[in-house]
């Protein structure tokens, strides 16, 4: 059956319009774009396409069908070009408005002043809720409404004519380039997992800081805005076509974005990586709900799954690093004594490390759910300290791990203290180091809260005991010189003092005290208050004993020859000499003496 005569006229008129804009046959058509012209011409062309598509339904003769097919192919080729041109023409304003800095980003940071980044900062600072909220998603209009209308008009006709695949490919190609450009502005590099794992950790740390900030922008603004644009153009034109275009656009960039976090999650573990891994974990955890919202379709399920899996691996990496850190502290092998018995570098490193862990208390408490796997009062391993966890049942698993680290640190330090030949110096070393542990715990409210007062009292008792042991080891023999026993001649207690024994006693005291002064002035107590307290404690025992001894026996020496060879120091001299102790350097080769 032939179509009505007026339909034939309509078809021929529409065909004429289509052929006039055939870019393969006309130079004028190649140089001009329909949608860059006036609205009347745009509407005429779209109506012509509609007429060709309508006439195809009624064409029964092969000639008519061929003519219609030929016309529709020409029209679709033209619309594809127009579609691409509109997309390209309206990509530049998006970059100008959202990522204004067109210069390459420095390694230290990216454009913090871009409106896109400011938009993110504004919503974070003005929102009373956490990141885990739909309020954190900020969609930007990537194109003006008239361009969106034109794109939708073209897409509708291409899809109806069976050119869905071409439409999606053109859209995805152009928009992916726009996303790639934004990635470059945000400092997100195209690196494979292998590339990332070969980088030095210091370089990766910088990239992690940048990634965290950029990932928030990408998920909450960039990807969310791309999704909105797809919906504006394609929603309702077919089964999940808007989602297909969205995935065509962001699949590559999403892989690029999450590859970085995945590479970190499976990288070789080492203690210095823990805190950046926790930063990465927190950032991804904050983004998880936003990821669920932006990537809510079946076709984007793999992104949701990947994000959850990366989060799980980051958590496992953090747990593994903590466990390996504990073992490293226990087994740290250095046996070279630190000069002067000062604080060992291991002590500083470990305590600074666990102080940082306490700063991540909330995250670490969520990740650490079991107590340490080593350490028991029933342990038969001589290389592992005993620890009864039943006494700490009310503590959180994280607190138990931090307490365990303090215990194994002390255990290791006790082994290192045995490397000192001088027992007094070994006790001073333990006093310094356990005192440092106590002070670091007291100085961190979070750490002190987890360790609690009972453990802190035990630690305080240990460094005070070490101080007592030092005093006994150093001063018992010195004070022994100042006793009366052995100086009196038998049977004559009132005046029978052996001058030769007394002279020997003074000489022995002088020699011992001078040796203590010579050595212990080079020993170091870095904490000013602790140093002063120990000096006072020494003085309270030594000075009164010396003055008393001097008062009782001075006359016996001064009545003989060369008394200055035996009574070399006054009480004030001894008191002044004690002030030289624990300064960490040789104050003087000789004890300063006041005029006698």
Low-confidence stretches: 93-97, 99-134
Fraction of residues in helix: 55-70%
Number of strands: 0
Overall geometry: rod-shaped
SSE pattern, N- to C-terminal = HHHHHHHHHHHHHHHHHHHHH
- SS strand fraction: under 5%
Multimerization status: single chain
The biggest beta sheet is recorded as: none
Let me know the average pLDDT.
86
Total of DSSP H or I helical runs spanning 4+ residues: 21
Radius of gyration: 42 Å
- Structural class by SSE content: mainly alpha
- Please report the distance between the alpha carbons of the first and last residues: 140 Å
Keywords: Exocytosis, Protein transport, Transport
Domain Exocyst complex subunit Exo70 C-terminal: 210-579
GO cellular component, one term: exocyst
InterPro entries: Cullin_repeat-like_dom_sf, Exo70, Exo70_C
Describe the structure.
The protein is mostly helical and 596 residues long. The protein has helices at 5-20, 27-31, 39-58, 62-89, 92-98, 115-126, 145-160, 164-186, 193-197, 201-234, 241-265, 274-294, 301-331, 345-359, 361-367, 397-417, 423-442, 445-480, 499-520, 528-558, 571-578. Helix 3 (39-58) runs antiparallel to helix 4 (62-89). The longest helix has 36 residues, at 445-480. The chain is rod-shaped. The N and C termini lie far apart (140 Å). The relative contact order is 0.05. Mean pLDDT is 86; it is low at 93-97 and 99-134.
């Amino acid at each position: 059956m032939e179509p009505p005569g007026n339909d034939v006229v309509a078809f021929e008129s529409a065909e004429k319009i289509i052929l006039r804009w055939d870019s393969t046959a006309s130079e004028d058509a190649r140089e001009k774009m329909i949608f860059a012209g006036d609205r009347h011409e745009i509407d005429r062309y779209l109506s012509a396409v509609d007429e060709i598509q309508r006439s195809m339904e009624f064409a029964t003769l092969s000639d008519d069908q061929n003519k219609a097919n030929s016309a529709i192919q020409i029209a679709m080729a033209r619309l594809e070009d127009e579609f691409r041109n509109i997309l390209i023409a309206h990509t530049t304003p998006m970059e100008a408005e959202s990522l204004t800095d067109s210069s390459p980003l420095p390694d230290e940071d990216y454009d913090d002043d871009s409106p896109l980044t400011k938009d993110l900062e504004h919503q974070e600072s003005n929102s009373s809720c956490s990141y885990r909220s739909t309020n954190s998603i900020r969609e930007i209009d990537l194109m003006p409404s008239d361009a969106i209308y034109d794109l939708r008009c073209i897409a509708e006709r291409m899809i109806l004519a069976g050119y869905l695949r071409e439409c999606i490919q053109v859209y995805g190609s152009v928009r992916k380039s726009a996303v790639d450009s934004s990635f470059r502005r945000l400092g997100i590099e195209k690196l494979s997992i292998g590339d990332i794992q070969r980088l030095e950790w210091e370089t990766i740390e910088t990239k992690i800081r940048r990634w965290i900030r950029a990932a928030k922008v990408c998920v909450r603004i960039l990807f969310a805005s791309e999704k909105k644009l797809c919906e504006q153009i394609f929603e309702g034109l077919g089964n999940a076509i808007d989602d297909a275009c969205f995935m065509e656009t962001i699949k590559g960039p999403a892989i690029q974005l999450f590859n970085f976090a995945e590479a970190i999650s499976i990288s070789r573990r080492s203690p210095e990586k823990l805190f950046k891994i926790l930063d990465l974990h927190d950032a991804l955890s904050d983004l998880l709900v936003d990821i669920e919202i932006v990537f809510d379709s079946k076709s984007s399920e793999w992104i949701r799954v990947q994000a959850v899996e990366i989060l799980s691996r980051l958590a496992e990496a953090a747990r593994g690093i903590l466990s390996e850190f504990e073992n490293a502290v226990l087994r740290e092998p250095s046996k070279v004594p630190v000069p002067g018995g000062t604080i060992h570098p291991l002590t500083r490193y470990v305590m600074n490390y666990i102080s940082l862990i306490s700063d991540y208390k909330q995250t670490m408490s969520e990740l650490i759910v079991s107590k340490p796997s080593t350490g028991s009062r029933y342990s038969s391993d001589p290389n592992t300290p005993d620890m009864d966890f039943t006494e700490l049942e009310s503590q959180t698993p994280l607190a138990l791990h931090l307490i365990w680290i303090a215990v194994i640190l002390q255990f290791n330090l006790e082994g290192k203290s045995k490397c000192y030949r001088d027992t007094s110096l070994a006790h001073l070393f333990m006093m310094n180091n356990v005192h440092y542990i106590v002070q670091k715990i007291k100085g961190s409210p979070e750490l002190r809260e987890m360790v609690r007062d009972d453990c802190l009292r035990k630690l305080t008792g240990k460094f005070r005991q070490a101080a007592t042991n030092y005093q006994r080891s150093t001063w018992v023999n010195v004070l022994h010189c100042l006793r009366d026993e052995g100086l009196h001649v038998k049977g004559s207690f009132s005046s029978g003092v052996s001058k030769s024994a007394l002279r020997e006693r003074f000489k022995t005291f002088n020699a011992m005290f001078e040796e203590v002064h010579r050595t212990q002035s080079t020993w170091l107590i870095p904490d000013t208050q602790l140093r002063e307290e120990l000096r006072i404690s020494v003085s309270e025992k030594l000075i009164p004993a010396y003055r008393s001894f001097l008062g009782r026996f001075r006359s016996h020496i001064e009545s003989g020859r060369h008394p200055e060879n035996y009574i070399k120091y006054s009480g004030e001299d001894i008191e002044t000499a004690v002030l030289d102790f624990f300064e960490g350097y040789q104050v003087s080769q000789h004890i300063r003496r006041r005029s006698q």
